[in-house]
User: What shape does this take?
Amino acid sequence: MSDVTPDRTHAEPAAQDVETQGGDRAQYGMCAALAGLGIVLLVNSAQLAPVASSNDSLGPRVIPTVVGILLLVVSVLYAVDIRRGGVGAADEGEDVDLGAKADWKTVGLLVVIFALSAALMEPLGWVIAGTLLFAGCAYALGNRHIVRGVLVGLAISLGTFYAFAIGLGVNLPAGILQGIL
Assistant: This one.
C-alpha cells in the first residue's frame, strides 16, 4: 500500500492550498487539546501523594508523568508537521458514504441502552446490567441473533466481573446475585 498524498514540502507557496499553507486551524486545535491534556496530566501527577511500597518501586506518579510528557512532545511535533504543510491521506479504503444522513434511531437506541444499563447497575449488578448492555448494543447495531447476543454479553460481563474482582481487586456491584458470584 503506498501513500498517495502529494509531497507539498517543496512546492511553490502559490501552488499550495490555502488550508495547508500555514496549517489548518482545526488541526492546530487538536495540537492545543493534546498539549492541554498533557499539562493536566503533569499538574495532576505532581499533586499525587508519594507512596512508599516495597512492591511498587516506581509509585503512582511515573506513568501519568511519562504520558503527559509524551502528549506534549506529540503536540509540538504535530504542530511542526502542520506548519510544514503535512496533511493526512484521504480515507479511500472505507466504504462509508459521507453524504448519508445519520441514523438517529440507532443512536437513540444506544443512548437508551447505556442509560438503562447505568440505572440498573446497582439494583441488578454488573453481570446482569452488563449482559443487557452488550446484548442491547449488539441488537441496536444490527445483530438479530438475540440468544447468541445475550450469551456473548453474559460471557463478557462475567469475564470482566471476575477479571476486576480477582485480577485487580476491584469489586463491581453484584446486585441481586450477591452471594452467588
